[in-house]
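ASSEMBLY PREDICTION REQUEST
Request ID: AP-0331
Submitted by: J.K., bench scientist
Number of chains: two
Total residues: 848
Priority: normal
Notes: Please return the full assembly, not individual chains.
Input sequences:
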Amino acid sequence: MIAEIIAAGSEMLTPFRQDTNSLYLTERLNEMGVSVAFKTIVGDNLDHLTGAARIALGRADIVIFSGGLGPTEDDRTREAASAALGVGMTRSAEILAAMYKRFALRHMAVPLNNERQADVIDGAEVLENVNGSAPGQYIDTVVGGHRKIVILLPGPPKELKPLFDAQCRSRLAATLPERHIAKRMLRMALVPESQVDARTAPIYNLYSDVETTILAGAAEIQLHFQCAKPTMKEAQARVDELATAVEQEMGEAIYSFNGESLEEVVLLMLGLRHMTLAAAESCTGGLLAQRLTAVPGCSRYFLGGAVVYADSLKTSFADVPEEMLRTEGPVSEAVARALAVGIRRRTGASVGVGITGIAGPGGGAAGPDANKPIGLVYVGISFGDAAEETVVTELQINGDREKIRWWASQHTLELVRRSLMERG
Amino acid sequence: MIAEIIAAGSEMLTPFRQDTNSLYLTERLNEMGVSVAFKTIVGDNLDHLTGAARIALGRADIVIFSGGLGPTEDDRTREAASAALGVGMTRSAEILAAMYKRFALRHMAVPLNNERQADVIDGAEVLENVNGSAPGQYIDTVVGGHRKIVILLPGPPKELKPLFDAQCRSRLAATLPERHIAKRMLRMALVPESQVDARTAPIYNLYSDVETTILAGAAEIQLHFQCAKPTMKEAQARVDELATAVEQEMGEAIYSFNGESLEEVVLLMLGLRHMTLAAAESCTGGLLAQRLTAVPGCSRYFLGGAVVYADSLKTSFADVPEEMLRTEGPVSEAVARALAVGIRRRTGASVGVGITGIAGPGGGAAGPDANKPIGLVYVGISFGDAAEETVVTELQINGDREKIRWWASQHTLELVRRSLMERG
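STATUS: Completed
Returned structure:
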C-alpha cells in the first residue's frame, strides 16, 4: 500500500512556511507498513487542489489531505476531494447544530461562511475534532476498480496529530495486515559519519528485516533501527540483537542506547555517582549551561556556574590570575585549566568545566591571543586539586560562530562523559 | 508564469528529512515575479519521478528539480526529465574529461557509475557546479505548443544555492519582464498577532502593490514587506512609505526596523549609551547569556554573568542573602531584585539583570515556593543602588519548559530595551 500526502495552503508555497505535518503522518504510516511515495504541496486554489487530488487518486492507495478545512473562502479541500472523487457533499445537520451550540456558548453569531465546515463528502465518516472547529473526514471507497482511502485532516498540527491518532490509526489498521513495530536509536558524538557507516554497515546489512537509518546531525550521529513483525516480541528481539551487535563494534563511542540526549546522559551519570557539575564558559557564553538546564530535574547534578565573557569576570568568578590572562592570553591551555579548577572550588561542585576559545568571526584580541586561529578552543575538566586531576583538551573547530560554539559545547559534554567513564 | 519544484530523494519521504531547498528557490523565484504553485516530493523511483515530471510539465511553466543527479543507481532525475520531455540524452565528452581529470588529481579511479553524471539531456545547457561533481542542466524548450523551462539542480543546498544564483537567475531574468524587489522587515516582541493585524491591516491594505506577510514566531511578530517595480527606487519608496506608516501606528512596540534580532538591538542600544550588561540567571539557565553571546562583537557590551541554578550560587555569585532565600523562596520578587543588584555590583556592569522562575515540569521546591505555579517568572533589572533604579516584573508564562524559558529570555531582552528607551 502506498500513500500520498497533500498539504493544502498557499502559505506553504512562500519562503516562510513549511509543511511539517507530513513528517508526523509519514512516521505513523510507516509504522503501519504503508510507505509514502509522494508529497504534494498546493495552494488554496480549487483547480490546483482538484487536479492534485485526481493525480493522487491515480497513483496512491491512501490519500491524506492536511489543511484547507477552515471556514474561509480559501479553504477548498472539501470541494476538491469531492470533485476528484466525483461525489457530492451534504451539509450535516448534526455538525451545524454543534457549531451553533459552540458559538452560542460564547455569545457569538455563526458567521455565514462557517457553515461550510458542516459539508460532508457523500460516503464519508465524520472525524470529530476536539481541538478545533473543523471536523476531519474519512472515505473508504472504490475508484476505477481500486480501493482508495481518502482522509481529510485539519492543518494545525495540534489538531491534526491527536485527530489522526484517535480516529484514523484504528480505522487504517483494520484494513491493513497486523504489524508491530520495535524501534531503537543509538547516538554517538564526534565520530565521523563515514567511520560509523564503514564499521556498522557490514553488521546492519545482515539484518535485512530491520530498517536502518543513519542521520548525521550537529556533531553527532544517530543510528535508527526499526523492525516490523507480526508480534512485538519478535520485532523487539531483532532490533535488540542488531543494536547489541553494533554496540559491540562501536563500544564506548555510543553515548545513548535508547535515544537519550548527551545532556541527559551526562546528568544521569553524574547522578549515579552522586556528583555535581559547574561550568565557567567564555566562548560558549552560556550555551553549555543552557543545554544542561533544558533537561527537567537537572538541578540536583548541575549547580550552574559563570559566563565569563569579559576577562574581569574570569578573575572575579573563577579566580583566573590577571597575570595569567596577560601572559598566556584568555584563549590558552592555562586559562582553561584555571577556569575549570576555579569554578569547581568556587561552587563546591565535584566536576568543574572551563571553556575558552575564539568563536569568530573576529580573531583573538590583542596580546598573546592576537595570532591564534578562529575555532581554537580549550576545554578544561577538573575533578580535584591535584595537578593530574585536571585535564585540558585543545580543539580546532572549523565553521562559523554558531558551529564553533555548538561543537565546543558538544565536545565538552562528550569529554565529561568519557572522563566519568574512565574514572568508573 | 508559474513554477513547480520537484524534490527528488527517498530520504525526504521518511520522517527524518525534509526538503528545504524549495524555500530558497521560492524566495528567488518570487523575486523574479514567478509564483510557485506546486511542490512535489518524490522518491528515487524512475516511474514515480517520470510521472511527476510529466504532471509538472502539464501544469507549470517552469519546472525545477532538486536532487537525484548523483552517481548512484538511485539517481534518476536525468532519465526522468528526458523521458517526460520525450528527448534523448548524450554522454558529454567534456564533462567526462573533467571528471577523469578530477579523480586523477586525487589518484582515484572513476567508478563506472559516475559516468552517468556526464549524461546531458538533448538541447540542455550544462550548468557547471563548482561545489560538487554533478553539473546542473537548463532546458528552454516547447512542449505541446507551450514554452517550458526545465532546470535540474543538485540536491545538497551548498551546491544548489550558488549554482542557481550564478547560472539560473540571469538566464531566467532574460526571459522575464524586468523587476526590482525592495524588502523590509519590522519586528515586535510580546505583542499579540491579532493586535498587530488589527492595527496594521487598515494600513497595509492601502498598499496593494506591496506584499505584506505577518509571521508569528516564538514571542515575536515579524512584518515582511516586499514590493516589485521596474526600478529599485520606486520599489524602495513604496516599501519605506508603508513601513513608516506602520511604525507610526505601532510606535515603540517595534524593536527592529530592518530585521535585526532583539539581541542585536539591545547590544546596539547599550553600545550607543556606552553601557554594559550582566545577568544572573536561574530558570533560564544561561539561555539569555547564550543568545547575547551568539552575536559577534557582543563582548564590549555584555560582560557575562552567572548561572545561579543552585541556591548556593545565588548567594556566592550574586550576594542574595541566605535568609531571603529561606523566607521569600528563590522564586520571588525579592530574589529577582537581589540578583539584579548583586550581579551588577559584582561585575561592575551598568545594567544588571536577574531572572528567577519555575520552568517546570515540576513545581517550586519545598518552603515558600511550594505553591507557586509553573510559569511564574520574576525579572529584575537594575541600573543603580537607589531603590527606584531596580524594577522587578512578574510574569506568568503558559507552556512547557522550553517555551517558558524562551519567553522569559525574550521578555527580559524586551524589558531591557524598553528601560533603556525610557531612560533616553
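REVIEWER COMMENTS: The radius of gyration of chain A is 28 Å.
SIGN-OFF: pending second reviewer
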